[in-house]
Amino acid sequence: MTGKRNARYMGIGDRIFDYSNYTFMVFLVLITLYPFINTLAVSLNDANDSIKGGIYLLPRDFNFNSYVYVFKQNTIFHATLISIIRTVIGTVICVFCSAMVAYTISRPEYVLRKFITIAFVLTMYFNGGLIPNYLLIKELHLTNSFWVYIFPGMIGVFNLIIIRSFIAGLPEGIMESSRIDGAGDFTTFIKIVLPLCLPVLATVSLFVAVTQWNSWFDVFLYNSSNIKLSTLQYELMKILQNSNAGMTQRSEADVFAAQSGQEGSTFVTPTSIRATMTIVASVPIIMVYPFLQKYFVKGLTLGGVKG
């Protein structure tokens, strides 16, 4: 009743503002979703027909040829499993280690906290370079190993700063009460700090998971000769390269057969494969996001206020 009464007495200017706000938000949602919907439409459209252009929200000649072409590759399912394992293990280890270091440098009694923080931040601006990094990984005997995906990214400086800012905003009385009860630093971290940091940890987990899931360059550098450790992104990249090479080597007879719609034609193009790859790589992360959404929004809000 109160809402209806307030709406009844709203002025014309307030109503114009509300309608304009709603219109803008709907427009913003549409332009945000359009690239993904357009990519989905291209991936579900006949590859030869997609060359003509003019596909926007719905496929013009619906088929699954591009998805069949991608999923018929023998290595795609094993690579997906490696990507899932890498994402889960890498995210858990990175978030836990980053949170542990963030808790340490957030303690006012730790005299080296400023020096350690500066040392970490400097690594965001200065890097040893590709060749020194490769030589380091090789000397550590991490090439042709699954752990090359995990150990180099155990601590993310950006994530470390976010978690540190959040922990610094927690009430100090909670820490003091745990120490009075006889809890050590590790017990306080596990039983007190981690549960309170759930929103920011969920936020950082999403950042790390997306990075791990989308990473392929480290596979190319360190594990390209080991097909058993190949990831989904690297295999999709190879499929796209093969598609590009196939377009240049395809004979005119094959193109004519595909264009004439002969039965059994599996004509694909780099454009259709690229759209299909985008959908295949995006869907798993999109499925995870709803479960972390409330923590993600809360973590960003609290981190911004308390940081």
UniProtKB/TrEMBL annotation:
PANTHER family: ABC TRANSPORTER PERMEASE PROTEIN MG189-RELATED-RELATED, POLYGALACTURONAN_RHAMNOGALACTURONAN TRANSPORT SYSTEM PERMEASE PROTEIN YTCP
PROSITE patterns recorded: ABC_TM1
Chief site of localization: membrane
Membrane disposition: Multi-pass membrane protein
Similarity field: Belongs to the binding-protein-dependent transport system permease family.
Taxonomy of the source species: Bacteria, Bacillati, Bacillota, Bacilli, Bacillales
InterPro entries from the UniProt entry: MetI-like, MetI-like_sf
Record domain ABC transmembrane type-1: where: 80-292
Keyword Iron assigned: no
Pfam families, alphabetized: BPD_transp_1
Database matches in SUPFAM superfamilies: MetI-like (SSF161098)
Transmembrane segments: 21-37, 76-103, 115-134, 146-167, 188-210, 273-292
Keyword vocabulary terms for this entry: Cell membrane, Membrane, Transmembrane, Transmembrane helix, Transport
Organism: Paenibacillus agricola
Transmembrane is among the record's keywords: yes
The protein's name: Carbohydrate ABC transporter permease
Subcellular location field: Cell membrane
